[in-house]
Amino acid sequence: MRYSKASEPGPALGHQHLRRALGWSAIVTLALTAWWGLLISPPDVVQGQLVRILYLHPAVATMCYAGFGLCTLASLAWLWSRTRSRRWDRLAVAGAEVGSVFCLVTLVTGSIWGRATWGVWWTWDPRLTLTAILFAMSLGYLALRRSIDNSHARSVASSVVALLMALTVVVDHYATSWWNSLHQGTTLWKPDPTVHGWQLATMLLSFLAFGLLTAWVVLHRYQLEVLEDRYEQEGTQVALAARRSEAASPGLAGPGQPGPSGPGSDLTGAATRDEPSTAKTPSELGAR
Amino acid sequence: MLAVRFRRAVAFAGRYPLLAGVDLDIQAGEIVALRGPNGAGKTSLLRAIGGLLPLSSGEATVLGLDPVADARALRRRIGLLGHRNGLYDDLSALENVRFAARVAGARKGAAEVALERLGLGARLGAMPVSRLSAGQRRRVALAALLAREPELWLLDEPHAGLDATHRRLLDDLLLAASDRGATVVVASHEATTAAALAGRTVEVAGGTVTGGLIEAGPPPGTPRPTALVEASAYVA
Amino acid sequence: MWHDALLVAAKDLRIERRSRVSLNQVVPYALMVLLLFGFAFDQDRSLLAQAAPGLFWLAVVFAGLPAVQRSFAIEAADGASDNMRMSGLDPAGIFLGKVAAITLQLFVIEAILVGGVVVLFHSRLAGGALLAATTVISTAGVAGAGVAYGALSVGLRVRETLLPLLLAPVLAPVVLAATQAWRSALGLSTTSPGGGWRWFGLLVAFTGVYLAGGVLTFGTLIEET
Prior knowledge:
The complex is a heterotrimer of chains A (about 290), B (about 240) and C (about 220). Chain B has about 240 residues and is an alpha/beta fold. Chain B has nine helices and nine strands. Chain B has a domain at about 90-150. The longest helix of chain B has 16 residues, at about 165-180. Chain C is mainly alpha-helical and about 220 residues long. Chain C has one domain (about 1-225). The two termini of chain C are about 20 Å apart. Classes of the chains: A mainly alpha (about 290), B alpha/beta (about 240), C mainly alpha (about 220). Chains in contact: A-B, A-C, B-C. Chains B and C meet through helix 2, strand 5 and helix 3 of B and helix 1 and helix 4 of C.
């Protein structure tokens, strides 16, 4: 993805056409996938109707990993001082949110598959286990993001956590697969050589459809962050003006301020000076 | 030489502006009082000088360095006393002061001397901090600063909780530090305590300061938006 | 860095010696967890002996959480975290010092838990070298990850609830790998003893990631968040 340099200093909206084109093609390909997957493609010789989950689960799982991968790479780019830019943080949150939604869908569809195939909702398949851990981590990551107000602090904390978690996932990968091999467990998704014809075509189409959907949602999420930044910037100016005006109470005004009511203004000055002080105590707390 | 130089300093907590454009000069060796009501921005200003509050715009130089970028080099030279004392309740007064002194690389015995200077002898020094009174705890925190011998003292309401005797003791201590060339910045909402001590009083209000620059007269850089005049007209 | 780490570790351990929070609160809690496991497994002795390594490491993780929270609570109590930042301590030193203090406290808790596992679950200790090496490296890993995420959550409004959410999935591989290594050491596993050392290697990788990550990022974490 490319972003014009002009959008860097003041966040600007753009990519209208790109987003619209992505959105429409995602809808069309998703509809096609549903049509082909549910009506056109035949049931499998071995798996019967169950094969149709192949048109959903692998594509969604791949997009889930793609989302988390995007989050990790963007976090890395944000942390590296030479490429540091707000845009990476926006991409990171977009990737993480899309990833965790698709992660949940992956878990649910995988679970349904397991129930239909082995009669249990859950098997300790290494990839399913890893995906579950990944989902829990992504929830932690997003919860962390939500609990930090300051945008710089949020970017720092979340990018560090994203990297640490990505490294943990590597360890997790070995742990779950070794663990599984101890128990001669089954592997859910082996590349199935018998998939061909309509099945193969539908599966490939599902990858395209969910890929487009992911790109579309990520781009929208990115734009939402741009809008939030703009809102923050504009709110900042208003808040600054309001803050400075607190200094305008007569008791503290410089000699240039006219005192219309003569000596009595000193008294009112003292009174009004205390007025904003009580109102502002929470801000002192916020400073800490 | 300037110990502190702030220009158009702006700092935020989330969306709330803590500092709204501060121009401030403080000479090395000077004692300056920051005066203003609660919420004016005194604490934030002290934290910004200490590098705990990064600026979102404007310039800041403290002891010739950037308070945030050069934090590591700077912080051993600065002593900051916040609203809270920052003491470990389970340790004794002496252990608290000694920890601060060791971190700063102070010479042996500095902790005992500092406690003595603040009127806390061996008996009180051995007590867990949690058993001390509020004023005594404040003095332990001040002793921890003194043991480190900072070049720049940043004190947030240091007189709070101290009785008259110890207020004078603190004042003498700060004057002595200033005589040795240290710079002292004292924030206080009380007009009398800090002003008696300070060579210069800077008024803080609405996240801005008046009289922050050393040249007399209203500082040219101080933002005076129109809202300010309107608001005061409304009050009048 | 090492000098500062030593200062911080000594300070934290001294506070623990005075307050005895870990000893008087965390240890009984961890032992209680073992008892609860006994209830959950309905006194099935063979099952308990089989599951003992996993239950032991779960108890360690459960005990590690309050230990980490306590380590940061002493900094937050009186605004000491600002003090710690202003002290000029090397952040990597703070990180290593806190990790060392928590690791040592966890060692004490683990020693007592091992006693509990032997008495309550009738485990027989064996495979000394693998057992000890696994325990040391896993404990450092739990402490390292705990301090790294604990630093993050210290300034947050929701730290009590966020820390467990962040730590639980992150510590999952430690529970998995340490359990397997212990099973191998105690002869509960069908695989060769070499399998146990393979798990140990994975634990070394995990602990390495968190110790190196903490040393590199701790300064950024406490300064900029």
